[in-house]
Amino acid sequence: MSFSLSGELLARPTPFYHYDLSLLRRTLEAVQQAARPRGFHVHYALKANVNEPILRLIKEHGLGADCVSANEVQRALDTGFAPQDIVFAGVGKTDAEITRALAADIWCFNAESAQELVVLNELAGGQNRRARVALRVNPNVDAHTHHYITTGLEANKFGIGLNDLPAVVEQLATLPNLELVGLHAHIGSQITDLAVFAELSQKLNELQTWLEEQGYTLPHLNVGGGLGIDYNDPDTNPIPDFEAYFRTFEQHLIRRPGQQVHVELGRAIVAQCGTLVSRVLYVKRSQQTQFAILDAGLTELIRPALYGSHHHIQNLSSQGDIQPYDVVGPICESSDTFGRAVPLPETQRGDLVVLRSAGAYGEVMSSGYNLREKAEAVYS
Ligand SMILES: *Cc1c(COP(=O)(O)O)cnc(C)c1O
């Protein structure tokens, strides 16, 4: 299967985001088919993409919501996610955000520090509530991914370090408005080596045994998200191997009787259904290279500039001879480059060029830098 756009879309002004809702539907069916028989609960990480038609479809397939701000919690509620299916993570939740999430009676706060637990306890008491919390631990597992999207190493700001855990657990006994319901970990993003998840499982097994020795039994475990996708070849691998992903946890995570296991997937659900569609404004040749200058830039898709990440780039208009192009955007930053020496058929002004796998961390990270207008989203 290769990417194409219908005639109507070919004539649209660019740049725009295109979302293939039928691929999203198939992805959601695949993830639930792999998760449900194994008794795993899938939460969708809203931060990857919060467009209404996408959220609605995700909700219809029975996923829960994983939020990292009170506005995301609100968006999830507005979409129809039930409060008991919403978790709230984040290393810097404000008092106002915690207050709003408590009032909404969401299922669980993934707490990331000793201080946050104190604040949460106090704010819950003020509302005469008991907040359900999972301790987000930093298990010091190397996700073998880009260092900007690694979150589970001691050098990262996320989670409670293993050294601090005993003191935090001791502190819990002094916080009557908190109910410890589980352990949480999220160690990074775009993880393609499943051995990383096996290692995470082993760390959680040890921590769980240790917590039981402290007198805590945990009804829930949350292993976070981070499953990667194939950015190089989205047509061959449009849907991640969810079977292998859940099998890894099934084999390595030692679940207690009746214990619920949760995952929080963002990228793996929505990345492949989204494409950034742009037109070539100019082709500019220098001594060393030739540039294809697009009308889309880092304002529409910042991942290459931010993480040096790769998106598959295709020229839909040309059948010419393959040549190398530096594919760049119009923004006044040298990092506004989508790829260097990208092999493309001979490219001209006006050609349609698409950046694939842009459904996750694309539109949500768009900005108005250079006073650019927000690119629209279309669905088919
Ligand atoms: C970002 C995030 C996720 C989702 O990560 P993906 O790599 O998109 O699957 C899950 N959990 C938490 C806590 C996150 O911050």
TrEMBL record:
Listed GO biological process terms: lysine biosynthetic process via diaminopimelate
Annotated positions binding substrate: R267, R303, Y307, E333, Y361
Q: Of which family is this protein a member?
A: Belongs to the Orn/Lys/Arg decarboxylase class-II family. LysA subfamily.
Kindly list the cofactors needed: pyridoxal 5'-phosphate
Molecular function (GO) terms for this protein are: diaminopimelate decarboxylase activity; pyridoxal phosphate binding
Protein name as catalogued: Diaminopimelate decarboxylase
User: Quaternary form?
Assistant: Homodimer.
The chain positions of domain Orn/DAP/Arg decarboxylase 2 C-terminal read 20-359
Catalytic residues of the enzyme:
C332
Biological role stated in the UniProt entry? Specifically catalyzes the decarboxylation of meso-diaminopimelate (meso-DAP) to L-lysine.
Q: Which organism is it from?
A: Hymenobacter roseosalivarius DSM 11622
Q: Which residues bind pyridoxal 5'-phosphate?
A: G226, E264, L265, G266, R267, Y361
Name the source's superkingdom. Answer: Bacteria
Q: In which pathway does it act?
A: Amino-acid biosynthesis; L-lysine biosynthesis via DAP pathway; L-lysine from DL-2,6-diaminopimelate: step 1/1
EC numbers: 4.1.1.20
